[in-house]
Design goal:
The complex is a heterodimer of chains A (160) and B (297). With 160 residues, chain A is an alpha+beta fold. In chain A, 17% of the residues lie in helices and 34% in strands. Chain A has four helices and nine strands, in the order H-E-H-E-E-H-E-E-E-E-E-E-H. Chain A has a five-stranded antiparallel sheet with strand order 2-3-1-4-5. Chain A has a four-stranded antiparallel sheet with strand order 6-7-8-9. The longest helix of chain A is centred in the C-terminal third of the chain and has 9 residues, at 148-156. Chain A is elongated and about 50 Å long. Chain A starts with a helix and ends with a helix. The model of chain A has no long low-confidence stretch (mean pLDDT 89). Chain B has 297 residues and is an alpha/beta fold. Helix content of chain B is 39%, strand content 15%. Chain B has a five-stranded parallel sheet, covered by helices on one side. Chain B has a four-stranded parallel sheet with strand order 2-1-3-4, sandwiched between helices. In chain B, helix 2 (48-60) packs across helix 12 (283-296). The radius of gyration of chain B is 19 Å and the shape is globular. The relative contact order of chain B is 0.16. The mean pLDDT of chain B is 94. Classes of the chains: A alpha+beta (160), B alpha/beta (297). Bound molecules: zinc ion (ZN). Residues 110, 112, 115, 117, 139, 141-142, 144 of chain A line the site of zinc ion (ZN).
């Protein structure tokens, strides 16, 4: 958090929680969406700050919530560069290693309109990773493959 | 075995055991292994042939059969969600055979069901028991499935029998598989990427017809097309007639899962290559053998 420390007026340190840094600029809100964080948490969002490595980046701080392994891995789908630090008593106690998840349940929509997951209220979508670079995931019900562009489009919304 | 959703659910030895059992069941009267058991035939999408052959196979093994098909099946499909229908059938049946218009319906049903599910066709996805029938016919005619050249022709994109057959062949060692289709109906990439044997995509069957041992012809189904104008463009791309068959090897065979529309002309029926009626005759013994595997293990 090199450059950011000099700009503490933007966001102060948190006592307990999670700091997600190095998010590609503009994707902080999508990160919150992936973590299904809507209300109840104190959150600090910093968007479009300078970064030596990335040019511009976003940062998200969430108070009193430690992001778990599964949640951390989901972040790779839209922010593979992100770093996740767990904070306890103002100290970084853990840096999460990000891995593209093997299985993504309920988050992504199958692009095949006649897939059962698009046609039965109880059927929940499920995708399995088939390759990481390039990112490709396959619907376990109908075998439709979705790629990185489709995943970004779905999570970030049509504007990206 | 428990559920049969995909032809990947069969190992090579499963295929071989089913072939052996089917041989046996064609000659002797089979043991009534489904006595006091109930088979539910849940056909949300109509299919007379498949329904009848599962029905007959169940009865031959001593089962009682309950179920629905045709218009009745369509109205059940419209009435409640699939999961609720499966829960209801779980109360009555020991095995559920499902045919449904949506891709992945059988897998979803298997997650809800406490009883084994057999996929009798789900959308454009898979139809694994048909593949066992197809491969058994090949085996009966050649004594083997390995080292043969296959030509799979027609709609390779929306035909579920093709997905299941391509996957079933991964359990064997075909010499070469020609995928013969117009570009709009070429096989799905995600299926091709999984295959462990050599295949080649071609548009013109004349290039390969002389090499083929097994010509597998598929019906081009209007209802699978997202767009009707696409269907109109390709509906009669490939017709197997006696001229085409005359170019084929003497001991080659022509297969088709039936029913056909006009992709195989009737004059071909009398040629020695025509094996699709023989193939259809294996439906009951093969499905008996499959029930045996599902219930017997
Ligand atoms: Zn799907």
């Amino acid at each position: 958090m090199e450059a950011v420390n000099k700009r503490e007026l933007i966001v102060s340190k948190i006592k307990n929680g999670t700091v997600i840094d190095h998010i590609p600029a503009g994707r902080a809100l999508a990160v919150l969406r992936i973590l299904k964080i809507t209300e109840g948490y104190r959150i600090a969002l910093v968007m479009n700050v300078e970064s030596k490595k990335m040019g511009k980046k976003d940062i998200v701080k969430i108070e009193n919530k430690e992001v778990d392994e599964k949640e951390a891995n989901l972040i790779t789908l839209i922010a593979p560069t992100a770093t996740i630090n767990i904070i306890r008593d103002y100290e970084v106690v853990e840096k999460k290693k990000l891995k593209v998840p093997e299985v993504v349940k309920g988050l992504l929509k199958c692009t095949n309109l006649t897939c059962i997951t698009n046609n039965d209220i109880e059927a929940v979508s499920e995708f399995r990773k088939i390759s990481e670079k390039p990112l490709k995931m396959k619907c376990v019900y109908c075998d439709t493959v979705i790629d990185e562009n489709e995943i970004l489009k779905q999570i970030l919304g049509s504007k990206s | 075995m428990r559920d049969i959703i995909s032809s990947y659910d069969f190992s090579k030895s499963d295929f071989e055991e089913i072939f052996e059992l089917a041989d046996k069941f064609r000659n002797i009267s089979p043991p009534k292994i489904l006595k006091e058991k109930t088979v539910a035939l849940a056909f949300f999408e109509p299919s007379t042939r498949t329904y009848l052959s599962f029905n007959k196979a169940s009865i031959n093994l001593g089962a009682s059969v309950i179920g629905f098909s045709g218009e009745e099946g369509i109205s059940v499909a419209k009435g409640e969600n699939l999961a609720d229908t499966i829960r209801m059938l779980n109360n009555y049946a020991d095995i559920i055979v499902i045919r449904h218009k949506f891709d992945g319906a059988a897998k979803f049903a298997s997650e809800v069901s406490e009883k084994p599910i057999i996929n009798a066709g789900d959308g454009k996805h898979e139809h694994p028991t048909q593949t066992v029938i197809d491969l058994y016919t090949v085996y009966k005619n050649f004594g083997d499935i390995d080292n043969l050249t296959f030509g799979i022709m027609g709609d390779l994109r929306y035909a579920r029998v093709v997905n299941s057959l391509l996957r079933g062949l991964t359990r064997f060692k075909p010499k070469l598989v020609y995928l013969i289709s117009p570009p709009q109906l070429s096989a799905r990439k995600e299926i091709l990427e999984e295959l462990n044997y050599p295949y080649k995509e071609v548009n013109d069957y004349n290039e390969v017809i002389e090499e083929v041992d097994v010509l597998y012809v598929t019906r081009i189904q209007k209802e699978r097309f997202p767009d009707e104008s696409e269907y109109e463009k390709v509906k009669e791309s490939y017709i197997v007639d006696s001229t085409l068959v005359s170019k084929m090897k003497k001991d080659s065979i022509v297969l088709h899962a039936l029913p056909r529309v006009n992709e195989i002309s009737r004059e071909v029926d009398k040629t020695p290559q025509a094996k699709y009626f023989e193939q259809a005759s294996y439906a009951v013994p093969i499905r008996m053998a499959i029930f045996h595997k599902v219930i017997g293990e």
